[in-house]
Please model this.
Amino acid sequence: MAKKAARAPKRSATPARRAARPSTPARKAAPRKATAPLRKSAARATTTAKAAKYVYSWGAGKADGNGTMKPLLGGKGANLAEMGRIGLPVPAGFTISTEVCTYYYDNKRTYPAALQAQIAAGIGKIEKIMGVTFGDATRFPLLVAVRSGARDSMPGMMDTILNLGLNDETVIALERATQNPRFAWDCYRRFIQMYGDVVLGVQKRAGEDHEPFETVLETYKDETYGNGHLEDNKLTADDLKTIIDRFKALVKERTGKAFPSDPWQQLEGAVSAVFGSWMNDRAIVYRRKYNIPAEWGTAVNVQAMVFGNTGDESGSGVAFTRDPATGEKVFYGEFLLNAQGEDVVAGVRTPEAVAELAKQMPKAYKELDRIRKVLETHFKDMQDFEFTIQDGTVYMLQTRNGKRTGVAAVRIATEMVKEGLIDWKTAVMRVPADQLDQVLAPIFDRVAVKKANVIARGLPAGPGAASGEIYFNADRAVEAAAKDKKVLLVRVETSPEDLRGMIAAEGILTARGGVSSHAALVARQMGKVCVCGAAALHVDYNKRTLTVDGTVYNEGDWLSIDGTAGEVYAGRIETGASEVIQGLVENDAEAKKGRTFKNFVQLMKWCAEGTRMTVRTNADTPEQVRNALAFGAVGIGLTRTEHMFFEGDRIDAMREMILAESLEARQEALAKLLPYQREDFFGIFKELKGYPATIRFLDPPLHEFLPNSGDQQKDLAKKLGIPVEKIQQRVHDLHEFNPMLGFRGCRLGIRYPEITAMQARAVFEAAADANKKGYKAKPEIMIPLVGFKKELDLQVEVVHEVARKVQAERKTTINYSVGTMIEVPRGALTADEIAQTAEFFSFGTNDLTQTTLGMSRDDSGSFLPPYEELEIVKKNPFATIDQTGVGALMRIAVEKGRQTRKDIKLGICGEHGGEPDSVKFCDAIGLDYVSCSPFRVPVARLAAAQAALAAKKK
Ligand code: ADP
Ligand code: MG
Ligand code: MG
Model:
């Protein structure tokens, strides 16, 4: 294998061609000038023993570096070395390490003194292995590719330059050696174009529609062959010569200098351009966005060229060792005959599927398939690789771990365990937790969606796909759904009053609102498909129309939304529930036979084995509990009791309670609510099958329950038999300047203990009922918004009092506990005091974030986007925990809570509980569980297991 390292095209070696070789001394390279910074000293000296090592060579089955050296050699360089080391056919080359990049920027863009000699030695090694010489104007010359390579591939970095080393003399040598003029001049044409563009900066100027080199090329084609499409590979050698002359003229005109003909000068220019590109604007912006430190630097790879453009026995392609969309273990990829690498991605011609190679070049295909297996056995992950076939011989140019969809990630991880390639712990670590919900999402038919037309974009708020007739209000949506219609609820924004419509709909589409808007929150909780904040939509409730770009859609028209991508399509696209949901939640026998289902279940089993924390769910209804348990939740971490008050005529009793003017009147109204609450809790205890339920007592400001519009207020007045003015007065009284910091949370129960008493009674009576039926209720009563121990004490007293009564009345004992949410800074800071009363803490990180940052989540749309752009906040703190700020308070509360009560139970119930980074943080600070919406449970379980496995490894 070693000997098979890339060679110049076979044709050059035939005796006939050799005979044609002129008698000029073979080793005479093109003249060199000592101007560029890389060549201060005499060229091509060998490395002095003491100098630091900057250049790492590979070739002929050996390599200085290996795959573990990504920080030093970059991702591309490390893996090229690794492939070379294990005997894969990689053209010889070397990597200039990232240390040189660092030196370059630390030293005013100059190079270490020893570098130049090391580069010369590196070229010397390639020459020896390949049997050709850089700058040789007499025989087949060594040509190289100069390729950038940071640790991870990074947009913004310099594009690869191919065929470097060509000039007016070496191109003739190449032509003569190969007897393939079109090939030789095609290489030269490509080289001048790439080098002119990326190194010399001959690029599109303001006002120009096309790249200047492309314009020259197209103009020539039109002049010579008429207007019409002509593929580049149809150009003759003579065409190419003329184009090259024009290219050179263009370079002269734009840069004021001739195109550099000295190969060494070309090489220096290219190397400097790579290092220079590390600090270009695009690269800086990208690094900032993905938090990549500038100190990492990029490496430069210089590698012998192999040629995919010598004819129809050659080609270039990219491939995956498995299908990156489905994860299926098939050879997947595409290639172009008679082409150099960049043609495949550039879309110059339409590539063919790699399977076609089996017919066109069976030997090369067999070799590639062999390599595909070697790559997987060696790297133990799905690989994304680049190859070139030169005259029937396969060469490897790159490999890396391939990006994949969530569905593919699950399949590949589980199947690789079965194949014995990786162990189950590695499999768990391999699936990106935030991609797991793709496996749960309803899906569009793949073929159909390709033909569909995107009319608007918004935030991908609820993953999955949904198609339906559009309805603009909840009632009509429910009505239509009752007639078995598929419905999309379209609103400017949603509010709790739309809930019924949202439940009835296949998907939710809003014109306003962000990822934490009501629509998005509900969508996540219910696992609904949702696109929100699609600003291009103009909804007219009166006319019942939706206008996008001048096109009008009426109620009942079909639209489709993709909540994974945030796209809105015109018309209907076929969808279906994911196999996993059909199998787990709907208990569908057919779905359970499915591969995705089985893989998912297997993965979740491993998660259970690897995790330390458990996962609970935020749920208000028995159905949500059922779903969450099916996904492996082990209890409820948050039941929001107020959600229960919106249904049916409960809201009337609730409003009556709020409007009551005396304790008696209030108690009368509360008595009406009691049976509803009891029934709800019973349903939940029953569904929980003995798992615990954390029940939060009334939390939101009361005005949220009162009607705002005059009409609704009149309706209510009529219903309750009171004057409408009284309602208006109460709405007025309850108005607050800062509702978030106002009369809410335990403050409600402190002022109206009878509300707390009613809720406690409902919980305990339901628990007694459940126990009697054998369901073993475990209520954990949670008092919200506590900042003072005394607040909790007062509320807990009410709870215990009711508990005593109910237990005596029912002659039973109830297994309950009381605790609090930690959601205001004072609560966290005095957690040692609060833990004297609280048996558990649950971090309410939504409010804790609002109160710690002093930012209202619901108003954050106006200031957070620029905050993220300017990196004042690294990520949206309402989506992922602000670990340094909010996280510090959480750590304090954990520590102080445990000081007072060693076995205090600790959890989190904010929206963050289903976000992978936050879950990992919760594991790090030692919480016992996280709680999240039912459809996030698998994501949280995976993140929790990954956190625990990573911690164990350390
Ligand atoms: P990127 O990081 O953008 O993928 P690469 O450095 O991998 O850039 O180069 C892009 C393409 O150029 C490769 O896919 C390959 O087809 C071609 N290429 C790179 N190096 C060589 C080489 N030594 N010989 C022939 N083609 C090459
Ligand atoms: Mg590449
Ligand atoms: Mg709260």
The longest strand covers residues 393-401. The two ends are 39 Å apart (CA to CA). Residues 686 and 775 are 6 Å apart (CA to CA). Residues 663-688 form the longest helix (26 residues).
